[in-house]
Write a structure and sequence with these properties.
alpha/beta; Rossmann fold; 2 domains; ten-stranded mixed sheet; 33 helices; globular; binds 4-amino-1-beta-D-glucopyranosylpyrimidin-2(1H)-one; pyridoxal phosphate; 1,4-alpha-oligoglucan phosphorylase activity; EC 2.4.1.1; Glycg_phsphrylas; transferase
Amino acid sequence: MTKTKISSSSTPATASLNAEQLKERIIRHLHATLGTDINKASPQAWWRATCAAINESVFDGLRTTQREHYQQDTRAVHYFSLEYLMGRLFSNNLHNLGLYQSAKQALAELGHDIADLEDQEEDMALGNGGLGRLAACFIDSLATMNLPAVGYGIHYEHGLFQQEFQAGRQIERPDSWREYGNPWEICRPESVQEISVYGYVETVYDLQGRMKKVWHPGRIIKGVPWDIPVVGYHGSSVNVLRLWESRASDFFNWDVFNSGGYVDASRENIEAETISKVLYPNDETEAGKELRLIQQYFFCSCSLKDIIRRYKRAHGDDWSKFPEQVVIQLNDTHPAVAIPELMRILVDRADMHWDEAWGICQQVFAYTNHTLLPEALESWSVRMFEKVLPRHLEIIYEINRRFLLEQVDVRWPGDNDKKRKLSIIEEGHEPMVRMGHLSVVGSFRVNGVAEVHSKLVQSDLFPEMVALWPEKFTNVTNGVTPRRWLKACNPRLSSMLDRLIGSDWPTDLKQLSKLAAHADDPKVQDDFMAIKQQNKADLAKVIQDLTGVAVDPAAIFDIQIKRLHEYKRQHLNLLHILALYRRILQNPDYDMVPRVFIFGAKAAPGYKLAKEIIYAINKVAEKINHDKRVKDRIKVVFMPNYRVTLAEKMIPAADVSEQISTAGKEASGTGNMKLALNGAITVGTLDGANIEIAEEVGEDNIAIFGLTVDEVKALRQSGYHSRDYYHNNPEIKAILDWLETDYFTPGKPGELAAIKHSLLEGGDPYLVLADFEGYQAAQQQIDGWYRDKAGWAKKAMMNTACVGKFTSDRSIQDYVDRVWQLTPCKVD
Ligand code: C3B
């Protein structure tokens, strides 16, 4: 396989654009596109005019890239994902085009601070968390590496809800990211697709007496594509993220109308426009709702038809080259319905024999598993599936029948237990379609997202599938784009790196290892820590603005940012804060380095305990922040509305990175990588990619604690009794009892009791109490380390220096080598 080389030293085509030329463009757009004037333009208009100016370069790249891909008839990867957590695109596009400095200067000369204009943009939050952000990093790397790729997804009208706190409780507000339009997207009416749902299947026979299935849909829906150009870094490629918006079709369905059911059927069915209305806000819990299945099918069907249209333009009705040209990556099981959809198109529409069609499918799809949490493993009731997609259910039955007969029964003859376990249809009171099983059976490759996770996918989730197809399974450890997560978000550190180790690191992140040679140099240490200090001062202002809490940049900034989930154990962090607070109250001279504990997290609106944890952190914060006896040794802040844009301000300012999930539960994590990259020291369990981060940075530069995956399993097997920890550890007992009093919620005892109950009566499903002792010891280690200024600086620098592995360019290269077999296509 040819190694994808990124020519990092090559200057971008647009680099020649200077501030003067940009100014001219911006003013031209202010006049011609915005219809306003320099004297009266609002910041919003200035921002839009600048976007339009940037887009001239973006669209140039887009046109050339598409022409080149078409002319060279390139093999391409099609990334199918229900989520893309893009954040803002303004500074990202400027950086990737190499225009950031020119734009900054141009705007300054026009009397505007580029940072103020950046704030005009709403986050594009079409995702929940890690899975959606990973998709965004991957399409950045794909474009940067000149790899032909299209991202496919849904053009949600409302992205992830906006979070507010009212008296400490999470309130959700709708996100309207494109209320006034979005300058980065292009509507493509010429590529509209129509898709079908509901209805019934009829069996007919043709003149030769061959049986055929005819699906008479109950509803036709229009899919309107919106293209978001994805600009590669200093590369020449501009790829496309194509997002589908649903609309009612003008097509009138006479079949259903004539059968007299139209009015009634449409009333109980989902209206076309609602399909792309809103992103489901559940992270790692399966929704099981009809609308969700329709969302999945809607974007898969539109995207497949789009791919086939493009393929046919070059190859007509000759399907033989399809698997050479097309690979489709399923981002989790959410798009798994694409497998029976492609079968339907090939068998029912293209009249292909089953075996031939199945042969094609099995060469086209690859599946990434992102979680082992049982509540996240998707399954759909057969009943609902039949209602929404009657023909697809038949196809799944046939895939399953052949799989059980030709694979399972051949390997384990007569073993009905094996059949029950491996069947795509789970039998029972309410039979279910298992989307994970379908994905494995229908894909040529299956990967987990970190070494340990991929091992567990094989040993715990699909061991029999591994026995059937060992070569199918592989690992691709996640990564993050260093363009957004270092270059753009941490300009001070970026310039220092450019000076010290050269400017190739954004596309060759292993270059960061050169920093290690300077890790003992007191001058470099001082520079590195001065930058951290300035970033912390910046964040302190943001904290003051958003929460009203004053924090001291000299304190340790200890950051936990991720979705709120019991397995991520924000409540373990809270228990430790309470322990410190209690020690201070018991011993006024308690000696600790002052620390600011900073949280950012959204809870799924229906996840009660997660919301109780947010409330508890906010109430504890309120008490501690106002308690004079604490003497500012502890501050606690919960940042409202955590999102990509806030992450970009928090990550460069972190001293400590909290990665404290129960071992075996966090598939990989990617926040862990971003924080280490920016010189934060991880307090973490041996879970997900933490294990690989520890291998890279070395044990001196990370604070590892807690049960391992094997120890967790052993403890569960021998019987875990959280109450033992409560009774045997007086500190744990005192803290949990404290939460039941009205100390933090005056006049309202018991308001914070939910956490205690889940840990005791609830059995502590994520072993918080078992890991408490180890966690507080790791935190003491951090406290000790921080007192040694030079020692800490070295550790922080070693984190930045040693995490080059975790660039998403490396992940993408792994996918290219292990899964996609793609060749880069250089674009002039
Ligand atoms: C997440 C996992 O929880 C993370 O460990 C992982 O780093 C990312 O995916 C990316 O692989 N994940 C998620 O955000 N949503 C899901 N439904 C499943 C996993």
